[in-house]
Every structure is written in structure tokens, then in C-alpha cells.
Design a protein that fits this description.
This protein is of the alpha+beta class. Helix content is 31%, strand content 35%. The protein has helices spanning 14-26, 41-51, 63-76, 94-98, 105-114, 146-156, 162-177, 234-245; strands spanning 2-7, 30-35, 56-61, 83-88, 117-127, 133-138, 141-145, 181-186, 191-202, 224-230, 255-260, 262-266, 272-275, 278-296. Strands 7-9-8-12-14-13 form a six-stranded antiparallel beta barrel. The longest helix has 16 residues, at 162-177.
């Protein structure tokens, strides 16, 4: 079996990968490692590997690397012929947690041997940063509100504090500076409008490093799990966040859960969208599920 591994070139676990994981995988399969060199490189490398008819493409990094790899495979148009997987070497690894991914080489071999399982994918149709129509795919979570605001803060943070330091300082700044944004949601069964701190459309169970906004999510049911945190007082939202991180749902008039296979979202102001920690674009957007669109290595 031919395997391409798209490795995040700045992963702090890169040495561990080369010393511990790669030798085990290479003992059983023809493995080619392609290391990213710049932003967006993972998408290009994944598209090249897919065009070369590589049987399995593994994303070795976090949710952002996986997001790029997924879109690279769709760019190549081989999503129905290529099996995807993830080796969790990032700082968040939220989708990896949802699908039971591991860094144990022998366990990865066993997962590969069992083969990929049909898995849902999300499709975002929105506006890019030049206000042009754009398309983007995601496999874990896309969000509006505090998610994109945190990414914007991370762009401003100094590189010397490291990835984890940038994330922690950025999310703290976001908590105290982000203002809830006015949005309107429309699904086939539920409409809502109001100011939201967080609006998330989930195929996975968590985002933002184990914030379990969709603990009941399944990756093959043809449905998104929606989460909306309205204009709650900040201290109340922070308390609820501790419950959410324990993979428990919150009961409050300002917290909403729903399921849908498509959602239309609009806003009177410029509201940003992110997916898997990657900036995507702006509302208005239509977000729909593509049932069982890819083969993914998961437990």
C-alpha cells in the first residue's frame, strides 16, 4: 500500500514522529513523507499526492493541517478514491480525538489494515476576503464569533511565545474584548436570530482544544450538530465553558443545540468564519453536509 504523510514542518513533535512512528509504518508500507514549508503548503502537497493516486494520505499535525489536506484532496477531485487519516501531532487534535486517532505506530498499522470508513464532510459557500464567492470543505467544526476572533488575535501575537503561548494569550484577549455579533440562522426546522458569542456547526465533537460543544456528534449520520451561545454575561459563559469542556451539555435559555443537514447564515455586519482553526471568509454563508463523502481511518 502506498502512503503519503503530510507532516506539519513546524510541529514540536516532529522528532518523535521520525524516530518512533515513521519506522513502524515504513516497515509494512511504502511511505513518503512530505513536510510543509509554508502556510497553505499542506493543501498543495495533499493535492499532488492525490493526483499521483496515493492510496492513503495521512495528515501529521493538528486540525489546521488536516483541514488543508482535506481541501487538497478535494482540489484534486480524488476524494472518492483516496483514504484519509490523521496522526495527532498538533496542539489541539480535536478531530483526531473524535475518531480515536493515535500516535502509536502499531495501532496506526492496525487502523490502516481495517481500512477507511465513509465519513461526512461539511461544505461552506461564503464570501472570501475580497468579497468573492468561495468554496471550502471541513471535517470537524466551522464557527463564527469567538473562534475567528481568536485566530485574528493569534495573527497579532509574537512568534517567540510559541504556538501554545500564542493560543493561550489570544483566547484570553478574545474572552475580554470580543463582542457578541448579530446573526440570523435558517434551517429546515429551526430559525434563530440574535447576538451570539459562539456559533458552531459541528461534524466532530469538540474544537478549540477539547471544548465539547457537540458531545453527541457522529461522523456518519448525515447531520451537523449546531451550538449557539447567545449574548450571555461573560462570567456566566466562562462558568458554562467548564461544563462544556467536561463533554456535558448546558441547560440555559441562552444556549441552543440543534441538528441539521444545511444552514443558511447571514449578518448585517462583517462576520468572519473559521474552520478547523483556519480563517475562511465572511457571511453570508450556506453550510451543508456532504454525507459519507470521504473514506477516513477511524475507530
Amino acid at each position: 500500500m502506498t502512503i503519503a504523510i503530510i507532516l506539519n514542518g513546524i510541529s514540536r513533535k516532529k522528532k518523535f514522529f521520525y524516530q518512533t512512528i515513521l519506522p513502524v509504518l515504513a516497515s509494512k508500507h511504502a511511505v513518503e513523507v512530505r513536510e510543509t514549508k509554508y502556510a497553505g503548503h499542506a493543501r498543495e502537497l495533499a493535492a499532488q499526492a492525490a493526483q499521483n493516486k496515493t492510496e492513503v494520505i495521512l495528515s501529521a499535525g493538528g486540525d489546521g493541517t488536516l483541514h488543508q489536506v482535506l481541501n487538497g484532496v478535494f482540489d484534486a477531485g480524488t476524494e472518492t478514491q483516496t483514504t484519509l487519516g490523521v496522526i495527532p501531532l498538533g496542539s489541539g487534535n480535536d478531530f483526531a480525538g473524535a475518531v480515536g486517532a493515535t500516535t502509536n505506530g502499531k495501532d496506526i498499522l492496525e487502523i490502516i489494515a481495517r481500512g477507511g470508513k465513509p465519513t461526512d464532510v461539511g461544505l461552506i459557500l461564503c464570501k472570501d476576503f475580497a468579497a468573492q464567492d468561495m468554496t471550502r470543505y471541513f471535517i470537524n467544526v466551522c464557527s463564527m464569533g469567538m473562534g475567528p476572533a481568536t485566530i485574528k488575535q493569534m495573527e497579532k501575537a509574537p512568534a517567540w511565545v510559541g504556538v501554545n503561548g500564542r493560543y493561550l494569550t489570544s483566547i484570553l484577549k478574545t474572552f475580554f474584548t470580543h463582542k457578541p455579533e448579530q446573526v440570523e440562522l435558517k434551517t429546515s426546522t429551526w430559525n434563530w436570530q440574535g447576538k451570539a458569542r459562539v456559533l458552531a456547526i459541528a461534524n466532530g465533537k469538540s474544537f478549540g482544544n477539547k471544548i465539547y460543544l457537540a458531545p453527541d456528534a457522529k461522523q456518519d449520520d448525515g447531520l451537523f450538530n449546531l451550538f449557539v451561545a447567545a449574548d450571555l454575561p461573560l462570567l456566566k459563559f466562562l462558568r458554562y465553558l467548564q461544563t462544556i469542556k467536561k463533554s456535558r451539555k448546558v441547560t440555559d435559555a441562552g444556549i441552543y443545540y440543534a441538528e441539521t443537514n444545511q444552514i443558511e447564515i447571514s449578518a448585517p455586519e462583517r462576520v468572519a468564519i473559521e474552520a478547523e482553526g483556519e480563517a475562511v471568509g465572511f457571511l453570508p454563508a450556506t453550510i451543508s453536509i456532504k454525507p459519507l463523502a470521504v473514506s477516513f481511518l477511524r475507530q
